[in-house]
Write a structure and sequence with these properties.
Chain lengths: ~250, ~240
């Protein structure tokens, strides 16, 4: 396998059990540099669990996760170093409420990457500019709207210069009128060749921005295709059922 | 008119002679202030010890609660902590004080203030530990995941994100525990210590006039507690104003 064709992330037969229920039941896939992989499926299908296994927020019961060719499920791997390169955006934003927006953005690069406060602040400000929130640096998270919070959360992940961004239903907790502003930021990222894995219910986004769609149900990937093929010509019976309900 | 004046004068006469008898004669006020000093010393060192024990026990218990992977060492320490909590919270503090004084330190006579501080500190530690743990658990799990997903390790995540929020949440309960602790030290007289309550009791036994010394001791406890409450309220307001 040459370096250029090596996948950024590769999962091999991932299984995650919670008690008796199997949230993931043997998921194997690859995510390559520059891809925007959209994971869709009914609720309870294991798509969030799959995403959370990629940076080991959820420790798989069995199977492997290879990030940049290294099996990060090995116990002697320093998972913290790898997580620094995997930005994550949560459904409920999870900004740190006791810190200003600027502190939220600059603390991780200062403490983890050893950047000076000036460097971190300059980077944070330019990213804030890009998401249209340059005037919000001194605000506290509780003073922001949901859409603004999520844009800040995306910015916080970007401040670490990640190689891949993981999105866990980033628009599901938002009022409908705020979904657009968050999706715009994500589209902007995708158009700048950011590798992204997105769990979402936004089928419009999946079709427009995704380079590949993973359809999951009952802990398995049932269908894997280009968005155009998946949405216009779904193969699997479950995928057809799902699409008939959500489209 | 004249009758009223006589009654008032008579009343004042009785009060002033009672004050003289209980507090001024033979420098009896010193019993109260020596006692206050002892009470403050015990309470202060007991609070310190309680916080140290509380942090250690709460760390073990929270780490156990928050991690899926639990090594044998963690499980061992967690069960020790749970036993400690059960025994200390399940038995009266007076009994614990007596056991520590008469049994554990029976052969080695160390300073009584130290003995009492250890007893009250070990007791308070159990309650403080559970207060700390409830504070850590009160912080949304998403905060923990956000910290870890950025690449912070467990300790860093606790330090930068969880503990500052937890501390704010537990301040009222912690203030409450310190108030209880100050007043609980009043049983130190059982091991022959001259604390504030004992001081008042000594005066009573000399003057056979119980109300003035006991009232005075009560007022002194009250002032301590009101002062401590004000300090905690101030701290709470300052921390709240940092974020809305």
């Amino acid at each position: 396998m040459t370096a250029s064709s090596m996948p950024l992330i590769q999962t091999i037969d991932l299984v995650k059990s919670f008690g008796k229920t199997k949230a993931l039941d043997g998921v194997s896939t690859e995510i390559h540099n520059g891809e925007v992989v959209v994971v869709v499926g009914p609720s309870g299908s294991g798509k969030s669990t799959f995403l959370r296994c990629l940076n080991l927020l959820e420790v798989p019961t069995s199977g492997q996760v290879l990030f940049e060719g290294i099996d990060i499920t090995e116990p002697d791997v320093d998972i913290n170093l790898h997580r620094q390169k995997m930005g994550m955006v949560f459904q409920h934003f999870n900004l740190f409420p006791h810190m200003t927006v600027l502190k939220n953005l600059t603390l991780p690069p200062i403490k983890l990457l050893g950047k000076t406060p000036e460097e971190a602040e300059a980077k944070a400000m330019s990213l804030l500019e890009r998401v249209g929130l340059a005037d919000r640096g001194s605000s506290y998270p509780s003073q922001l709207s949901g859409g603004q919070k999520q844009r800040i959360a995306i910015t916080r992940a970007l401040c670490m210069d990640p190689g891949v961004m993981l999105f866990d239903e980033p628009t599901s907790a938002l009022d409908p009128e705020m979904v657009g502003e968050v999706l715009d930021v994500m589209k902007d990222l995708a158009s700048n060749d950011m590798t992204m894995v997105v769990v979402t219910h936004e089928m419009g986004f999946a079709r427009e921005v995704g380079t590949r769609v993973l359809f999951m149900d009952e802990g398995k990937i049932l269908e894997e295709n280009t968005p155009a093929e998946f949405f216009d010509n779904p193969q699997h019976r479950r995928a057809k059922e799902f699409l008939s309900k959500v489209l | 008119m004249v009758v009223y004046c006589t009654v008032l004068l008579d009343y004042w006469d009785r009060i002033s002679s009672s004050i003289y008898l209980n507090f001024i004669k033979d420098d009896r006020w010193k019993y109260l202030f020596t006692g206050l000093g002892i009470t403050l010393q015990i309470a202060f060192f007991a609070v310190l010890l309680g916080i140290v024990i509380g942090i250690v026990v709460a760390s073990v218990r929270s780490t156990y609660d928050l991690n899926d992977k639990r090594g044998p060492l963690l499980r061992f320490f967690n069960s020790i902590c749970k036993t400690y909590l059960t025994v200390i919270r399940g038995t009266p503090v007076l009994l614990q004080l007596l056991i520590i004084y008469f049994v554990i330190f029976a052969s080695v006579r160390i300073d009584k203030v130290l003995t009492a501080s250890i007893a009250f500190g070990i007791n308070s530690g159990a309650y403080v530990a559970e207060i700390f743990r409830s504070g850590i658990l009160s912080v949304d799990r998403g905060q923990f995941e956000a910290g870890r997903s950025l690449g912070f390790n467990y300790v860093q995540t606790m330090w930068y994100f969880i503990l500052p929020q937890a501390f704010k949440n537990i301040l009222p309960a912690l203030g409450n525990e310190f108030i209880v602790l100050i007043k609980e030290t009043s049983i130190a007289g059982y091991i022959g210590m001259h604390d504030l309550t004992k001081g008042a009791d000594i005066i009573r036994s000399q003057t056979y006039d119980p109300f003035p010394p006991l009232l005075a001791a009560g007022l002194m406890y009250l002032i301590l507690v009101v002062g401590l409450t004000a300090a905690f309220n101030h701290l709470e307001r300052r921390l709240r104003s940092n974020d809305r």
